[in-house]
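To close the section, here is one more complete example, presented without commentary so you can practise reading it yourself. The ligand is adenosine-5'-diphosphate.
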Amino acid sequence: VDAAVREDMERFTETFKGIKERFRLINRIGEGTFSTVYKAEDLEYDHYDNSWDLEEKENTKWSTPPLKKRKTDMQGLADLDEYAQQRRRPKYVAIKKIYVTSSPSRIYNELELLKDITARPCDAVCPLITAFRHTDQVVAVLPYFRHTDFRDYFRNMTVPDMQIYFRSLFKALAAIHGAKIPIIHRDIKPTNFLYEPDKQRGVLVDFGLAEREGTDSKPCLCRKSIPERRHRVQNSVAATMGPSNGYPKNDSRPSRRANRAGTRGFRAPEVLFKCTEQTTKIDIWSAGVMLLTILSKRFPFFNSADDVEAMIEIATIFGLRRMKMCAYMHGAVFESNIPTIGNAGFTLEKIILWSTCRNDSGKDGAEVPLTDEEKMAVRFLERCFELDPNKRISAEEALQHEFLREEVY
Ligand code: ADP
Ligand code: MG
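Output:
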């Protein structure tokens, strides 16, 4: 462990009252926009229960029995720790130190969602062990999951490897989307899905941007029936003004506000078009971007600086015609005179062949077509990339798709 990290860990354990009596910090494993994560040993782990640390002294599996005591709302972090006392505890934990600059409501939201998820355990979703606060600093304690950096394995994944990887990711999504009030993760991307290729096990982490479906949403055209949508669009200001060149000068339309939280390149088109009634389907799109990344062996696949560039990237692939329709359904207008955006776009198959240099302009001048199993992956990808969120596959349906379905012999 390098000196700067050691110093940072010492500063943290010295200032956070009570932490060093209970945890021995081992290393710093993550440093993001919203938190710093440390690997630590829980000094009060269950010595009597050695199911945690089999050969490798690592948690091979962490599952939580349902909580004995259930409460509808979180009555404080002390309560949470009380629940933790009732469960078996792993030896190695990840301590997530949430930056004090995060708003209390944001921190509360993350812990509340994690607590709810923990009450209905799923192997593919990281549960919460406990949480502590000292003055303005809050830490969440999670079981530690060994994982490999995505960049070190994604280029080598075979289609069967992808099936295992995405089966696990979609099980996680089905679990959170299937909550009584569905949970939208909002930040599905490789660094938030901890995967260990050797063990073929993955866990979804990071509920820092997650929210319940329906939270501060206002009716959006996309959720209306098609005849009603047509009626509204025909009467809308955008339709009466007609397509304009560039931005209208005296635009009297109210500005639109919508949650745009997430990571560049993984945002669904409805997020870019500021849909005011976003659903769990935004996570399915992001999972699709992960699959496209693996199939095309390019990371990051989309590399835009802002939302408009992101729209251009999507329009280039899916074509102007579909992109305009997509904008329209959220009450927006998409216009472009960029010559590289064609009306019809390209098939995902073509995009993958180009990205992997297997098209006929490759070095041998011959096209190396997709294999049957790659074509199956592409059929699944097309379902994740439906521009209309209502038509896009759900996590539950995805698990029944030929690409993810587990064959029963
Ligand atoms: P942030 O909101 O800062 O992105 P995350 O919850 O995504 O925080 O954690 C940041 C990083 O820390 C992850 O990408 C991962 O590498 C590591 N990490 C988080 N939780 C765990 C865990 N339970 N086990 C092992 N590593 C973890
Ligand atoms: Mg993260």
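Once you have examined the tokens, check your reading against these statements. The first helix runs from residue 3 to 15. The chain has 14 helices and nine strands.
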